[in-house]
Specification:
The protein is mostly helical. 67% of the residues lie in helices and 4% in strands.
Length: 425
């Protein structure tokens, strides 16, 4: 939950996934914190988008590999030997973990075939991990990869997931990070929406043409019942059958059921000076949007505070977005995560005043309380889940009687240790 100190005891918003237990908790919170925003965890919803993309061969491959390598140390050793990469455990709670495996197997498919051909892979019996292997996992995998038609279809499914879901995965990762993500969340979702509208209908993704062409060439060589062009057209339809159900689910949930959440993030984007500078939000219509959004989502502010914020928005904030050094960031040589971190750091620096070099008369104080409320909102529950993980790592059942101050201090020290170490260096 996000809170603001100046509004004592006030909760600005909470984030939750779709677990039924959370519905009961929300019904209690609504009674205690009237006016707080009830938001859904965006990364959690995006994971469900991927789960609605049917790729049965790829899914079964993941299940068999997880069982085989999960139960057998020897199998994991052979996996590392063949693919030159250690086996990474794949969880069942996040779809992007399975996507990572699918993408890696597709990228190194020839090495993966070498692994499946190894005769030392355990088949039956009690392995050294203690799990019973029945031989069915590796048998099913070999049946698929040794049959031309299913091997080629598996490659198509893996390649489609890898190429078409790259932006979906990166957006999920980024929304689970730290910093003022609330200011850029709408831009991320808007980019995804455009991809689902255009890219999925036309299969216009980087590298997707190679996936389709490989499928067509391999099928023509293996079967030769149709022309390459006919196989290419069939490959496009097979790829669409995987991704279009995900598109429908995205439109139904993210852009449909979560429309109110998306509207909150759209309002918060107005306080992103990069967006405000480049999208002409200071027209009469833009100012009216700001005024109505503030009244709707942050009605805890008094009428005087809201009026002062509107005046500041259309005058000082407008001037500072045009005069403050906020250059468009270049992503060349930087990863997606690095570029996002730089952007978020600059947005924080803007509102902290360290980037503002204009006259002191152009201050943003009338907007500060609203900004603090906005920045208290997170588009995911990942931060709180990380705190729960720290609790589990620091405290056992034997420490159940620890003082609240002790628990709070220990968690704060652990959570901020990495930043402190970096600052010390």
């Amino acid at each position: 939950m996000g809170t603001v100190g100046k509004l004592s005891g006030h909760v600005v918003a909470w984030q939750r996934d779709r677990a039924s237990v959370n519905n009961a908790a929300v019904s209690i919170l609504i009674l205690s914190y009237r006016g707080a925003l009830d938001l859904h965890c965006l990364p959690h919803t995006l994971c469900h988008v991927g789960e609605h993309m049917p790729a049965p061969l790829a899914l079964k491959l993941k299940q068999d590999l997880c069982k085989l390598n999960g139960l057998s140390l020897k199998s994991r050793k052979l996996w590392k030997e063949a693919l030159q990469r250690a086996w990474k455990k794949v969880g069942n709670t996040r779809w992007w973990a399975a996507w990572e495996l699918h993408a890696w197997v597709h990228e190194e498919f020839e090495l993966f075939l070498l692994f499946t051909a190894m005769t030392d892979i355990p088949m039956t019996g009690e392995d050294d991990v203690g799990g019973a292997l029945d031989g069915a996992c590796i048998t099913r995998i070999r049946t698929v990869v040794n049959t031309p038609a299913t091997r080629i279809l598996l490659q198509l499914q893996l390649g489609t997931l890898r190429r078409c879901c790259d932006l979906l995965i990166r957006t999920t990762y980024n929304l689970e990070g730290d910093g003022p993500l609330v200011l850029v969340a709408h831009g991320m979702i808007d980019r995804l929406d455009k991809m689902f509208d255009a890219g999925f209908d036309n299969m216009d993704f980087d590298g997707m043409a190679d996936v389709i062409n490989t499928y067509a060439d391999d099928m023509h060589q293996a079967d030769n019942a149709s022309t390459v062009e006919q196989y290419r057209a069939a490959g496009v339809e097979l790829a669409k059958a995987i991704v279009l159900p995900g598109k429908d689910y995205f439109n139904l949930t993210v852009m449909g059921k979560l429309a109110d959440d998306i509207a909150v993030y759209k309002f918060c984007r107005l306080l992103n000076p990069l967006h405000a500078r480049d999208h002409h939000v200071f027209s009469d219509v833009g100012v009216d949007t700001f005024r109505s959004g503030m009244k709707r989502y942050f009605g805890q502010l008094t009428a005087e505070q809201q009026a002062a914020a509107v005046v500041c928005f259309r005058s000082n904030y407008k001037a500072l977005t045009r005069t403050t050094e906020l250059p468009r960031l270049e992503s060349d040589g930087k990863s997606d995560k690095e570029s996002l971190k730089i952007t978020l750091d600059r947005l924080l620096a803007f509102w902290q005043g360290s980037l503002i070099t204009s006259s002191a008369v152009l201050d943003l104080k009338p907007l500060h309380l609203l900004v603090r409320m906005v920045l208290a909102i997170a588009p995911s529950s990942a931060a709180s889940e990380r705190v729960f993980s720290i609790y589990n790592a620091l405290f056992s059942a034997l420490q159940s009687t620890a003082y609240v101050d002790t628990v709070r201090t220990a968690v704060m020290l652990s959570f901020n240790r990495a930043d402190d170490d970096a600052a010390a260096v």
